[in-house]
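Notes to self after the Tuesday call (sharing in case useful).
The group wants a holo model before anyone commits to mutagenesis around the pocket. I volunteered. Ligand is NDP. Logging inputs and output together so the record is complete.
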Amino acid sequence: MNKEHFSVPNKPFSYKLFIDGEWVHAKKGKTFSRESPAHNTTVGIYEMADAEDTELAIEAAHKALEEGPWSKMSGAERSKILIKVADLIRENAKELALIETLESGKPITQANDEMEWAAGNWDYAATLGRHTKGESYNSLGEDMLAMTVREPIGVVSMITPWNFPLLIVSQKLPLALAVGCTAVIKPSEFTPGTTLKLGELLTKAGVPSGVVNIISGYGDPVGVTMTNHPKVSMVSFTGSTKVGKLIAASAGEKLKKVGLELGGKNPQIIFPDVNLEEVVDAVVFGVYFNMGECCNSGSRILVHDDIADELIQKVKEKSQQVQTGDPLDPEVKVGPIIHSEQKDKICSYMDLATSEGAELVLGGNSDENEAYVYPTIYDKVTPNMTIAKEEVFGPVLSIIRFSTLEEAIAIANDTLYGLSASIWTKDIDRAMVFSRKVKAGTVWVNTFMSGYAELPFGGYKESGLGREMGAYAIDEFTELKTIQVHIGEKTNWWLNK
Ligand code: NDP
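Result:
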């Protein structure tokens, strides 16, 4: 692992809006800034776009879609450019990772990994550019041949959150570009840096002007305009279930397509017939990775009664080794919480856990003057407690005990979410029964939080709508057109019958 030490730059990074291939100021001349949650210093200054800037970005994307060349290029030509973007992300990974750590507070080693995963998504999308295809129908009678073709859905609005800024935009943008769409992107107001930097890389790689437009600003008015505008055909959103529902409702009024990747309350079910060391590692990684600010966070452990005490003791011991502190220190595994409201939200869940009767095993504390919440474990959580059902988005683990598979499945499914779930057992029947019955978009068996660009990702229930990644992304970002071709002289037209 790269153990290089980084430091806070002397002056903040500064960015403009990326509209129609140009770097421009916001029309009203306003800016906003971001303080590093760990260092109490300004690390980014951004243009504050409003509805007018957003409309310009959408118009540019629409013009690029209608006029080309991007939407009219061959898949092979687009693929070459997407591969160049992947290479450029890797070449610039050090700077991109630094920006993400400064803005989000995530440990620098995790930011570095994220850059590689993001680049991998661009590599993968390049393979799809050449596989956008439909079907043919040759069994409709001698005088008829029909086919379906896939066409880019149009201008896609992409609204992204603060927890994995470059990775999440890279779960949407390269796939949409691969099939010929154009895009307008709004990163979170807390972490716009790497998404704006991506604009520079896209230009270098040869993405034509107007194909991708990136604007910094607030959810209202920027995100709202991106959702309502008539020239936007699809809204692809990752973030809270609350905002996801607002977007679905307003996109629904105009019958726009939506892709929603929302929250999760992901259970890991642990049976006694496992190697506990492997499981403990997965539990600790699953809950503290990215400070628990992760839709896939393994924040809910369901452990079999027979091994509960032993597992909890081991998880506690390992959690005590997890270093919390300055995210620029490569030894640190848990950095600061993104902002004070999020920290307060996590603390209020910890208060609720105690008042509802959960037993504190470790942590439960935060530093009043700093942005840190220390690794926290609650035992004796029952399925009806708030901490067992709601997304905490912090380094807080809830442990629920169970005795049968049926009970574990019922508890696993007893939330509004359904993003991911995992089971640890060597019994294949048990693993498959669980995999079939759990209501989750992704199920892991004897592993946790692995992800591949080839595999679709998304959630059941209030965890979202649609799927990202994998070849399925072609369906997400295209319209399906049916073409029917009559062959030979038409003799059976109804007027001549
Ligand atoms: P939000 O859902 O509020 O923000 C996500 C994105 O949506 C941001 O770019 C935000 O803009 C934008 N946005 C906000 N309001 C609107 C709107 N009305 N129309 C269009 N876009 C809008 O998430 P938060 O950052 O507030 O986090 C709150 C909670 O959401 C967390 O505690 C966590 O539980 C969950 N969450 C889930 C994530 C996931 O990966 N599924 C990621 C992040 C959060 P702006 O930057 O201006 O706020």
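Two things stood out.
The pocket of NDP is lined by residues 159-163, 186, 188-189, 218-220, 223-224, 227, 238-240, 243, 246-247, 261-263, 295, 342, 345, 391, 393 (CB under 6 Å).
The chain has a mean pLDDT of 96.
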